[in-house]
Amino acid sequence: MKSQRQLQIGENIKRIISEIFLRDDYSVMMNNVITILEADVSPDAKNVKIFIDIFGDSTKHEQIFNKIVENTPHFRYELAKKIDLRFTPEILFVHDKTYQKANLIECLLNQTFKNSDHIIEQSNKPKRKTSKNRLSKTSKTSKK
């Protein structure tokens, strides 16, 4: 379980990193939205994992994430100027794709429900008699 200090430092780091994203136009230049989901601080506050998600043009997600990782030293430098800690934590960015996976699962479930509704509608329709059945009934009655 996280200590109160770790949670406070994490929230502070989230705020500072999001300000850097806004100031340096990381998302605007590629027409995407970058969301910081969580900043997970180690117990000694020397390391932080920052979980981010990128919304928008999915073809550019990896390119944007790689650019963020390349600029990790810049983020750490800016963080050092604004955070009041003895040591500036090492930053590790993690591309969290949980929401993308959840959206995919939701789409698949919606398709499944639509298909199952269609199948149920098909099974509830009254079955029509074929012409063979009609002929066989008439032929039986005519033989008597």
Characterise the protein shown here.
- The chain folds into two domains: 4-95, GMP Synthetase, Chain A, domain 3 (2-Layer Sandwich); 98-126.
- It contains five helices and three strands; from the N terminus they run H-E-E-H-H-E-H-H.
- A three-stranded mixed beta sheet has the order 1-2-3.
- The longest helix has 27 residues, at 98-124.
- The N and C termini lie far apart (87 Å).
- By secondary structure, the chain is α+β, with helices and mostly antiparallel strands.
- Strand 1 and strand 2 form a beta hairpin.
- It is elongated and about 80 Å long.
- The model has no long low-confidence stretch (mean pLDDT 82).
- Helix 1 (4-24) packs across helix 3.
Which helices and strands occur, and which strands form pairs?
Layout: H1 4-24, E1 32-41, E2 47-56, H2 61-70, H3 72-82, E3 90-95, H4 98-124, H5 131-143
Helix pairs in contact: 1-3
Placed side by side, the strands forming the largest sheet appear as 1-2-3
| CA distance, first residue to last residue | 87 Å
- Mean pLDDT, to the nearest integer, reads 82
Poorly predicted runs: none
Percent in strands: 15-25%
Described by the principal axes of the CA atoms, the overall outline is elongated
Number of helices: 5
Number of spatially distinct domains: 2
String of helices and strands? HEEHHEHH
Q: What's the helical proportion of residues?
A: 55-70%
CATH homologous superfamily designation of the largest domain: K homology (KH) domain
Question: What's the quick description here?
Answer:
The protein has 5 helices and 3 strands.
